[in-house]
Amino acid sequence: MKQLLLLLTVLSLSLASWSQNKYTISGHVKDEAGEDLIGSTIYVKELNTGTVTNAYGFYSITLKEGTYQLDYSYVGYETQTRKIELSKNQNINITLNEASKTIDEVIVTAERKNSNVIKAEMSTMKLQAKEIKKIPAFMGEVDIIKAIQMMPGVQASSEGSSGFNVRGGSADQNLILLDEATVYNASHLMGFFSVFNNDAIKDVKLYKGDIPAAYGGRLSSLLDIRMKDGNMNKFRANGGIGTVSSRLTLESPIIKEKGSFIISGRRSYADLI
Amino acid sequence: MLLLSSDEETKKNKLYFYDLNLKGNYKINDKNRMYISWYLGRDVFEYDDLFGFNWGNRTFTLRWNHLFSERVFSNFSFILSDYDYELGQYSSAAGFKWTSDMSDIKIKADFTYYPNTKNMVRFGVNGTFHHFNPGLAKGTGDETIYNELKMPESNALEWAGYISNEWKPLENLTINYGLRGTIFQNMGKSTVYNFEENYEKIDSTTYGSGDIYNTFYGLEPRANFMYALNSKSSIKGSYSRTKQYIHLASNSTAGSPLDIWVPASPNINPQLADQFALGYFRNFFDDTYETSIEVYYKDMKNQIDFRDHAELLLNPEIEGEFREGNASSYGLELLVRKQTGDFTGWISYTLSKTEREFPEINDGKVYPASYDKPHNVAIVANYELSRRITVAANWVYSTGAPVTFPIGRYEYGNMIVPIYSDRNDYRMPDYHRLDFSLTYKFGVNKEKRFKSELNLSIYNVYNRKNAWMINFYQDDQDPTVTKAEKVYLFPILPSLTYNFYF
Q1: CA-wise closest residue to B366 among B400, B329, B399
Q2: What CATH number is associated with residue A25?
Q3: Looking at beta carbons, which residues of chain A come within 8 Å of B176?
Q4: Closest to B14 (Cβ–Cβ): which among A188, A209, A270?
Q5: What is the CATH number of domain B2-376?
Q6: Are residues A159 and A208 in the same domain?
Q7: Residue pLDDT, tens place only, A59-81
Q8: Of the candidates B43, B168, B339, which has its C-beta nearest A49's C-beta?
Q9: How close does chain A come to B78, measured CA to CA in Å?
Q10: Looking at residue A195, which CATH number applies to its domain?
Q11: Is A179 in contact with B37 (Cβ distance < 8 A)?
Q12: Are A122 and A209 in contact (CB under 8 A)?
């Protein structure tokens, strides 16, 4: 009963706070190339609370009038701090710089990196495309699914397969989304390679349970794959020549800081057999 | 091994794949932004211009981000998705063509409302139109010898609406609660076969174009909590119910490009799962080492399996091959992860058990799922030796997969007939493998725009012959002797990749 009273008090307090003067800080968090950073943390020091950016790098946080310190952080990037006098709604867009190794030691103390502990989210694992690229590649083909298969609770369906089993679920119980579109068969060449070209991918998040209510239709997991948006500031190209395939990716602003595109192609050699 | 053979005969074969990703985005103003994404992938197999087989996915997403206010974010999506394959022999008068495809059209609206620091409300609706054309095979020449074989086409509508709130009643407590409601409707034009209890076809019913002939409903509660013990550790728990209305008809654990998706229908129920999970999260050394322990229990109803020797390809009565049963899985997962510094990677360990129980399979006895591998270990490590040189390695281990083996035989006339064990009563040998890679970067010290790197990857470094399949056959000389033969896929496989950036 005591707990219930406490809960009601808290609830009514949070409702009461609606009537005070409140303003919203909102905006996008990006990296230097203008790519939206998904799941970056915004921490309000004074209130020991915060929020995270959504799949489009957007955040919104509503606070009472006052002075606040906001820390913007993302794994592998330098934390940025903003002091804010909040007396009206504010739009704050942040560009985070990739942490260079030499100053990595310094920022450890300033950064709030415990978001994996304090996020109300479990049974998930997120990988950035650049982490996936570091994993030894089967026949030189960097492969998202092969990285997923090494996460806890995930098993490869068989050797050289793009199928995976999550927490005792069959391979068809995984919802694989590429920019929110369902991919029905994730295999190239009978499964030795997956259909995802890592050069075109920003990041990948696997939900092994605790799937958000926004997603459904499959029993066991959600594999949320987000493509890169393309460089907002300058033309960039990258490519590769491998044992199995060659790749080329071009990205460029359409109008600087307003629009961009990316095109990425990959083709294996015809005489594979 | 197919990929590496250099046989003259196989030179006539062609096998390749390609894919293309395209994405554009445009910020109209501070409140509106558009995204367009497109994917096309294809695999092509050709044999000397006589036989062709190609398959692939296509996806398209058009999205519009709109801010109704600083506190209301919305996204509207229009999504297309398609998977299809075609195989055939076209050149002769007795040629044939076999096609299959499934496609989705989806519209979606998602909203996030950020009223204050204590609540974040997400809600939305979406609708999907599925079209299934599971298989059509027919002769192509004038003097065709083939009859047309067609699996009935069908359509389905899948609707969903959801609302959830992330609520922070206390500084160290967050509770996320939500509900998802779904409706799945089978829609004509279609022919549905009716089966008696032994799965023999009785008759069929044909529905006209646009007729809704079957409807399923579902409510899927989702909830989790996070209770922070201090800034370094927390306890989390979750419950979720999930439903699945379309199923993959596949005979193999690895899957094949020919596999087709079959919707829930008057003959097949939607799958249902309830999952409970509890976890302890703890960071060490200034949050550089992230660790977690999670335990889960998952109860699964209306799971899909197939009768022994099921015919899943070009079978118009495929629904009669489905069998339904229940499954359960529980396990413990450990993760240690380091994401910053010269040395990065993770170690994961999973202990789990997954069992299935189908009244009509394995005499109704419980059997391990074919992907029930109790112990799983993965070590992923990456070390930047210098600005030029990075080395990486991973090692994976898993218990062998369960398998059904012949355990005896009897003679029938002059034939020898094998007797099989209970389903999945034996196990393959354990699987383990080490991979290694070394990357050397060029031009790191120069302010040049052009940069490149050379990567050497070695798959299966200690050349373990991991069993992929075990075949049993009779000895040529003495048919009373049965021999077992282990098939493995990949020996030690080095590869070189050159990457460039400018």
Answers
A1: B329
A2: 2.60.40.1120
A3: 120-121
A4: A270
A5: 2.40.170.20
A6: yes
A7: 999 999 999 999 999 988 888 99
A8: B168
A9: 9
A10: 2.170.130.10
A11: yes
A12: yes
